[in-house]
Design goal:
6 strands, globular, 3-stranded antiparallel beta sheet, Alpha-Beta Plaits, alpha+beta, 33% helix
Length: 215
């Protein structure tokens, strides 16, 4: 597995690995075989949303995934807690890249998605939710903006595939235009993967669509 120089540097000199007073949450990350304690401060923005003011962590994790973790915790600042469980992996990827055209990691891994699951754990803690029930399927998809549609599809994939070692977890929605859903992957594409994604989306969205996979 190849990681960016930025990840390697953060793993050796993390910027958010520090104890902090205030709110805390201890999370098990079984794929990384480690626990982390997340420290966080909250406030409200002008729209009244609860946001993360500042986050830091303590952990015994070592190696490049410590750099990925550090990058994710840095990006939590100013994020709305209500949406932090749907944090786009591509935002973390771009943040950790050395060059814009080169991914920060040779393939998105279960460990990377597990790090993103910290956002769901924080949301559940803040809003006293014991279990995430998946996206609200009454969402009016066709009358929503493209940005909202992308967020919804990402939430569907997060709930059904990401962090569950599912073979479709390697795909990420990139764009939607005229009922054409474009996905990216840094891994090999299975012969029936496009069909499986199409059938999955048509089942949940209740209309016919087309899936294109970019590599």
């Amino acid at each position: 597995m190849k990681f960016s120089n930025k990840i390697e540097q953060l793993s050796k000199n993390p910027k958010r690995h520090a104890f902090s007073e205030g709110n805390s949450l201890t999370i098990e990350l079984p794929k990384l075989e480690v626990k982390i304690t997340l420290f966080y401060a909250l406030s409200k923005n002008l729209e009244g949303e609860v946001i993360v003011d500042h986050a830091s962590y303590k952990t015994d994790l070592h190696g490049p995934y410590l750099g990925v973790l550090d990058g994710f915790v840095s990006l939590m600042d100013s994020k709305a807690v209500e949406a932090i469980d749907r944090f786009p992996i591509k935002e973390l990827d771009y943040f950790l890249r050395d060059e814009q055209a080169t991914p920060c990691i040779s393939a998105y891994t279960d460990q990377m998605y597990e790090i993103l699951s910290i956002g769901e754990a924080l949301k559940n803690k803040v809003f006293n939710k014991t279990e995430y029930q998946g996206p609200v399927l009454e969402f009016n998809f066709l009358e929503s903006s493209v940005s909202e549609q992308l967020d919804f599809v990402e939430e569907l994939f997060s709930y059904h595939f990401y962090n569950k070692n599912h073979y479709l977890s390697k795909y990420e929605i990139d764009d939607i235009e005229d009922n054409i859903f474009k996905f990216n992957t840094f891994d090999s594409v299975g012969d029936d993967d496009g069909t499986q994604i199409q059938e999955f989306l048509e089942y949940h969205l209740k209309f016919k669509l087309k899936v294109i996979i970019n590599q």
